[in-house]
Amino acid sequence: MKLASWNVNGIRGIHKKGLFLPFIEGVKPDIVCLQETKAEQHQSEIDLPEYKEYWNSSTARKGYAGTAIFTKESPSSVVLGLPENIVEKYSLSKDTYGDPNKEGRVITAEYKDFFIVSVYTPNSKGDLSRLNLRHKHWDPAFLAHVKQLNKQKPVIFCGDLNVAHTPDDLAHPKENEGEHGFTKEERVGVDNIIRAGFVDSFRHFTPKGKEHYTWWSHFRNARARNIGWRIDYFFISQKLLPKLRSAKIHSGFLGSDHCPISIELDV
């Protein structure tokens, strides 16, 4: 089974450019997880008869954030957002930017042998004004969600985590130390995911090495120069590791400031 993930930074825009369907045709995923859809399902104008579509669109602000799962196999259940008991436990409520659990940032689909979660983690902002929400509330709440799922069956979660985990995951770590996307607090969030037993699928095959990026700034021709960040991930439960066959970054697909990523599993 092949699974793909892509922060499309606006599903309508990328489709109008004629760049979404070539990705589907080129990668041929069985399940596609999307982030930053910035639309509701009826607005997407995408016709993929092979896939069933499940959307979690922002109710707080139209045309903002949002996640979706396109899948060839029907899941047994789909849950939008984080569970209320977790939201309450971690006080994941409205900040000055809004309520992150109403921004369409998480969608969870259950299949016979695993759960899959598409996630678009809140950005800490350039002035770090959302770092407290991210570090103290969102990251522990999301981890609690996937750990809770993992008690039932293995979990695959993927998407834009808005953090480069190690110095190998961005082109200029020294210059960006302490900046949003590379603070100690954000990186600890990924440390905690790994301590909980989830595996960074790409680093399983490529434990070291730079130049493997999934996001590039629009400024200074960053993408052409490959001055980027790896902030999009596929994490899998330890139980699925023997079935993991590949983990790839598809930097050749354009249309977004992010590129797609994928994994293959024998499931």
UniProtKB/TrEMBL annotation:
Keyword Phosphoprotein set for record: no
Binding residue positions for Mg(2+): 7, 36, 160, 162, 257-258
Residues annotated as site: Interaction with DNA substrate: 258
Site (Important for catalytic activity): 232
Cofactor detail note: Probably binds two magnesium or manganese ions per subunit.
InterPro entries (UniProt xref): AP_endonuc_1 (IPR004808), AP_endonuclease_F1_BS (IPR020847), AP_endonuclease_F1_CS (IPR020848), Endo/exonu/phosph_ase_sf (IPR036691), Endo/exonuclease/phosphatase (IPR005135)
PROSITE patterns: AP_NUCLEASE_F1_1, AP_NUCLEASE_F1_2, AP_NUCLEASE_F1_4
Cofactor: Mg(2+); Mn(2+)
Keywords in alphabetical order: Hydrolase, Magnesium, Manganese, Metal-binding
One GO MF term attached to the UniProt entry: phosphoric diester hydrolase activity
Catalytic residues, chain numbering: 120, 160, 258
Pfam families registered for this protein in UniProt: Exo_endo_phos
Domain of life of the native organism: Bacteria
Residue span(s) of domain Endonuclease/exonuclease/phosphatase: 4-258
Keyword Metal-binding attributed: yes
GO biological process: base-excision repair
Annotated site, Transition state stabilizer, chain positions: 162
Signal peptide: none
Family under the similarity heading: Belongs to the DNA repair enzymes AP/ExoA family.
Protein name per its UniProtKB record: Exodeoxyribonuclease III
Organism: Candidatus Kaiserbacteria bacterium RIFCSPLOWO2_01_FULL_50_24
